[in-house]
Amino acid sequence: MDKRVQSIKWLYLTVFLIPVLSMAQEKEPKKEKETKIDEVVLVGYTKVSKKDVTNAVSSVKGEALKDMPSTNAAEAIQGRLAGVQVSLSEGAPGADVDIVVRGGNSITQSNAPLYIVDGIQMDNALTILSPKEIESIEVLKDASSTSIFGSRGANGVVLITTKGGRKRAKTTINYNGFVGVRKIQNKINVLDPYQYALYQYELYYKNGVESDMTAFNLRYGTFDQLSKYQSVKKVDWQDKVFGREAFNFTHNISITGGSDNSAFSLTLNNVQEDGVMIGSSFKRNMANFRYDYDVSKKLNIGLNARYSRQTIYGAGTSASGSQSTNRLRNAIRYQPFEGGSTVNVDEFDPLFADQTNLVNPVLLANNEIKENGRQDLMLNGTLEYKISKDFTFRSVVGYVQRDQTVNQFSGTVTTLARQNNDQPVVFLSNTQSRKITNTNTLNYKKTFGDHKLDFLVGQETVRTDGESTSFNIKWFPESVSAQEAFANIQLASPPAGMVQDAPRTAREVDRLASFFGRANYIYKNKYIATVSMRTDGSSVFKPGANQWGYFPAASLAWKITEENFLKDNNSITELKLRVGFGQSGNNRIGSFLYDTFFTSSSDYGYAFGTSVTPGATTGNIMANPNVKWETATSQNAGLDFGFFKGRLYGTLDVYQTDTKDLLLLAKIPQTTGYEYQYQNSGSSQNKGIELALGGTIINKENFTWKIDGNISSNKNTIKSLGNNASSSSNFYYYPSGWQNNLFDFLVQVGKPVGTYWGYVTAGRYEVSDFDYNSTTQAYTLKSGIASSAAVANGAKPIQPGDLKLQDTNGDGVIDSNDMTDLGSAQPKFYGGFSQTFRYKNWDMSMLFNFSIGNKVYNANKIEYTTQYLYKDNNMLAEVADRWKWFDAAGNKVTDPTALAALNANTTMWTPPAGAYFLHSYAIEDGSFLRLNNLTIGYSLPKGSLDAIGVKNLRLYATVNNLFTITGYSGFDPEANTRRNPLTPGVDYSAYPRSRFILSGIDITF
């Protein structure tokens, strides 16, 4: 076993399991707090006492988040929920957060869970919530709990309840604010100036071409002059681009209160955060107002209004596109010193850019301006009427609107501008989506004798509309600024005979009608049965039988501690067995894909007379009237337990989820006239085990120590690919997209999603692998030794020191038949744990998360150790240890004995001259243990500031991302930049992760 993995496991045991196991030896505290017993969780459309829950639910209360300062609610729950993976795609301000429940079920469609905030469906809801305003988060994980939500519940449901005011409470004002600074944590080591110059000498001189050698001498000097580069100051371009101290100012204000029959809360949040990269930052303003009013003893109404406005500034380092969008490359591969060109380093050199495909990274960062703005509005009203003692009617109406704008400017030094007459280019887009929801439920609750009944029936409608428009505008004046271009697009003037690209438009229309019911029965407070049924009709499917999905569920629970043989047991205070079965659905595809639509545009026009007549096209996706719901069937068995009067508690779950009729965008024969078609094709399976443990290790009057942790294991398997692969092969290859035409993922029955597909690195070719002709000084591979030339060397003859690949099938030829399974992005185990200490008025908390056994595809490593087409590019520092062809005097060595002796202590191969390809050198162990958050706080004694109206005052200091134990060589083992379920774990041009140090104040009046 890898030593790093062992160290992670032992540290986990030391700081989590051992203290919990030793807790039983602690003497009983004077005061017990059995808070766990009376907890209430939100399940479905109603609240349920946690001791009566029959489903697999992970929850975190706002109490656990209140001491963790964060600008992102998703970041605050990272590592806290069993079976829930929360990861940041990269370190950019406002970066996407991925949340996957139990491994995700879809192969090509989104695996994001369904978010419901205060009863209203929202997308990516955690990005518009402040951690300070969250009352609770419940994650429904098995279909016996998610099926009541039917549509989109297949990937889990995240129920979020925000804080409200309290009736009969005085008005209180709370301010929580912090200021902090971010600093880049890791860098990628590259060649220093002297190492770089020696490497360029080798490239220019190796083949003995006179023009190349002359070009080198003009740019770098002769070999005997290269020693000057030993004293040349190294320019750390990563530091210049990502090295600034990025400040953060965050303010949270909440005002709460209530009268005898009403309660209100007002929450305000402001975030101003710089990014460590030049030109990047994040700004957000949020406001939330909530009001509850008892009209009478029977009628209660509630109103909630939320508004969020945020802007992400900066083009970042990459996009989901190919190598051409990689901005990180310039900071890594640009020459590591100033000068050496025909122009000053802070000016643009078009000749150097053409020769190297590189631009000064500082100039580039200042020439790519991007503003990604977003506004979210959520309005919802709730009416609850108690028809009688047993019947309650509840109606929720919600409106959610999202407006998103993207303004991007590409200045004259950018590749895009250079491709368009060296003139700036502007991209503008506007998107709006509107969602109206209405949910009506009738609830009946009745207790008689040993029987307790809870029936609920309901109806729900969701209406979604949206439009988007985008423009790509070229030929702006060279001197125009980004803001001038955004405000005055008429400044763009096409050359004679040219026209601007036509705008692109799209429209979204989605309708959902649902009917559901649930029955819960409890007998003698021991035996619990829950059954539910939901029917969904979705407009994305053709009207008729396929339009409707039916999602049943059932679960049972047995409170073993209520039996006579355990009822009076002082050690075992909770023991509940749960089993559940259910189905949930997924309809996440575009609208009206069952029919053929035509798009009209001058792009598809034809000449008629002296003008161009707009034409029409159907696009490249073929209609499929037979497409239907994707269905996930889940089985779950769980055990909830508590010992020593609640001081130790936990949950153990095992599950299996089978997803069939997967909604896949399948590639079809082009003889159809189309390239793709959405199909219900294939099935997948997730099965795993989850363990959550927690407890109060020490509970003294002046000192408490609490710990909570979880560990999960999920195994994902593709069971069928249906029509998307031939019946004989049951597989196909899929591109990650970082390099065009590189099919580096395997999608195969029996393997997990995210399987890397490439060659096995076998080191390098040594002198002993060749026959040497002393007359021609030529090296020729010996008979029986397979050549990697076609794959790794651009078909050029293999020479000593070249990259060697393994001939896996033993046929003596290195070709695509030697590609093999290189591992998976799926971890063997993942989870997290937190510890909270309180000593008198001091408090300290630590939050860890970890992953064990996952592989990371470090695509940067491939690019930055491959020469490909360009000279004058810098390389990773390990290239300094490459195979050498020139001795210390700059003379080329060809004699086999001397060449072998020259390279006796080198280990790296010569950077390949062929195209980029995946080999196992870039597949690294991504196991890690990260201390996400360390917070230390001090609260003034209660009552010490009553004279000036201060109820509570707490000062705190925090470090986020304090350390990461990992063997991964890139910026961050959690990086995931491709944004596609089929290609997880690819680290390509990710924005570097930073460490955040802050201090703040929490004061209540």
Structure in words:
This protein has a domain of 41 residues. 11% of the residues lie in helices and 45% in strands. The chain has a 22-stranded antiparallel beta barrel. α5 packs antiparallel against α6. The chain is globular and about 105 Å long. Keywords: Cell outer membrane, Ion transport, Iron, Iron transport, Membrane, Receptor, TonB box, Transmembrane, Transmembrane beta strand, Transport.
N-to-C CA distance? 55 Å
Label the structural class.
mainly beta
Beta percentage is 35-45%
Q: Could you list the spans in which at least 5 consecutive residues all have pLDDT below 50?
A: 7-37
Largest sheet: 22 strands, antiparallel, barrel
Any idea what the radius of gyration is?
31 Å
Annotation field: number of helices: 16
GO biological process, one term: iron ion transport
Protein name: TonB-dependent receptor SusC
Subcellular location: Cell outer membrane
Pfam families: Plug, TonB_dep_Rec_b-barrel
Ordered list of secondary-structure elements with their pairings:
Layout: H1 3-22, E1 40-43, E2 46-49, E3 57-61, H2 62-65, H3 73-76, E4 84-88, E5 97-101, E6 114-117, E7 120-122, E8 134-140, H4 143-146, E9 157-162, E10 172-184, H5 193-205, H6 210-220, H7 237-242, E11 246-258, E12 262-274, E13 281-294, E14 299-313, H8 328-333, H9 350-356, H10 361-367, E15 368-386, E16 391-410, H11 415-418, E17 425-448, E18 451-473, H12 482-487, E19 504-523, E20 527-538, E21 548-559, H13 564-567, E22 572-586, E23 599-608, E24 611-617, E25 621-622, E26 630-643, E27 648-660, E28 663-667, E29 676-680, E30 683-699, E31 703-720, E32 731-734, E33 745-748, E34 755-758, E35 761-764, E36 770-773, E37 778-781, H14 789-792, E38 803-805, E39 820-824, E40 829-839, E41 842-852, E42 855-858, H15 859-863, H16 896-902, E43 923-925, E44 928-939, E45 952-966, E46 986-987, E47 994-1004
Parallel strand pairs: 6-9, 25-29, 42-46
Antiparallel strand pairs: 1-2, 3-8, 4-5, 6-7, 8-9, 10-11, 10-47, 11-12, 12-13, 13-14, 14-15, 15-16, 16-17, 17-18, 18-19, 19-20, 20-21, 21-22, 22-26, 23-24, 26-27, 27-30, 28-29, 30-31, 31-40, 32-33, 33-34, 34-39, 35-38, 36-37, 40-41, 41-44, 42-43, 44-45, 45-47
